[in-house]
């Protein structure tokens, strides 16, 4: 089973709303990084695994953009925005060479993640930039809140079964990029906070809701445990970190 077939399938009626919450969480990170790079109208950019398309649309106001995904139903082409159904693990590069390649919450979900990361570096023109945002749910195993920890561990188990998820992959990406000859490699880490009513919580609550039925059906959680996880949110003093979002940037030598 792949990402497009599981609990995060775009066939799930609530998936678009979940992706919009994810955009609210991640767009400020992506846009801040790219604004610092000062993109020019002549740039050609690829947004890989573009989801619901908010970042691709923002970027298309500044440069030429190709937005790719296995399922493009939530993507809308525009004057400077091309939408392409594309499998990043095996299809040829969707144009290029690119001045910027952007991917988020993607590489850790792919079976050939290391080879795909290498492929993305080869899509870049000399001097081109790579921006990768990942998500590492493994830190949830250390939550001091039993109900939340049980739900997060069940979610991670489902993702591992459905996608062969490697949650720590992006944290190890800088070394792979160095081996590929990339330069100006940087890494930053953003906490995904829950309990504060913010975008991180909205993303995780939406993700849990899409997975709770599978958790119960597969015996990972009982209905009582699901109720306890739902009840955890909104309680005074219930604040925690459920994931880290590693952000890795690098440049192909000129």
Write the layout of secondary structure elements.
Blueprint: H1 15-37, E1 44-48, H2 54-59, E2 64-69, E3 81-85, E4 98-104, H3 113-122, E5 124-133, H4 146-163, H5 173-179, E6 183-194, H6 199-217, H7 223-232, E7 240-251
Helix pairs in contact: 1-6, 4-6, 4-7
Give the N-to-C terminal Cα separation. 40 Å
Topology as H/E string?
HEHEEEHEHHEHHE
Strand order of the largest sheet: 3-2-1-4-5-7-6
Strand content: 15-25%
Outline type: globular
Mean residue pLDDT: 95
Total beta-strand segments: 7
Spatial extent as radius of gyration: 18 Å
Give the class from helix and strand content and strand pairing: alpha/beta
Helical content stands at: 25-40%
Low-confidence stretches: none
Tally of separate helices: 7
Task: Sketch the major β-sheet.
Answer: 7 strands, mixed
Textual characterization of the structure:
This protein has 254 residues and is an alpha/beta fold. 37% of the residues lie in helices and 22% in strands. It contains 7 helices and 7 strands, in the order αβαβββαβααβααβ. Strands 3-2-1-4-5-7-6 form a 7-stranded mixed β-sheet. β4, α3 and β5 form a beta-alpha-beta unit. The radius of gyration is 18 Å and the shape is globular. The termini are far apart. The mean pLDDT is 95.
């Amino acid at each position: 089973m792949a990402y497009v077939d599981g609990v995060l399938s775009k066939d799930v009626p609530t998936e678009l709303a979940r992706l919009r919450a994810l955009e609210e969480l991640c767009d400020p990170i992506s846009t801040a990084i790219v604004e610092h790079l000062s993109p020019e109208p002549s740039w050609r950019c690829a947004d890989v695994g573009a989801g619901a398309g908010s970042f691709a649309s923002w970027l298309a106001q500044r440069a030429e953009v190709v937005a790719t995904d296995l399922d493009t139903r939530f993507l809308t082409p525009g004057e400077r925005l091309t939408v392409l159904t594309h499998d990043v693990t095996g299809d040829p590069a969707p144009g290029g060479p690119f001045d910027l390649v952007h991917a988020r919450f993607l590489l850790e979900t792919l079976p050939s993640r290391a080879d795909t990361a290498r492929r993305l570096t080869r899509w870049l023109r000399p001097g081109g930039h790579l921006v990768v945002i990942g998500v590492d749910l493994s830190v949830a195993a250390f939550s001091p809140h039993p109900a939340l920890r049980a739900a997060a561990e069940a979610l991670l188990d489902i993702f591992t079964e459905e996608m062969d998820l490697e949650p720590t992959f992006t944290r190890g990406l800088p070394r792979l990029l160095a081996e590929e000859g990339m330069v100006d490699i940087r890494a930053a880490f953003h906490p995904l906070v829950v309990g504060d009513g913010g975008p991180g919580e909205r993303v995780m609550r939406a993700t849990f809701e899409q997975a709770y039925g599978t958790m119960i059906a597969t015996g990972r959680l009982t209905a009582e445990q699901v109720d306890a996880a739902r009840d955890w949110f909104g309680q005074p003093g219930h604040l925690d970190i459920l994931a880290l979002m590693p952000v890795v940037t690098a440049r192909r030598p000129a």
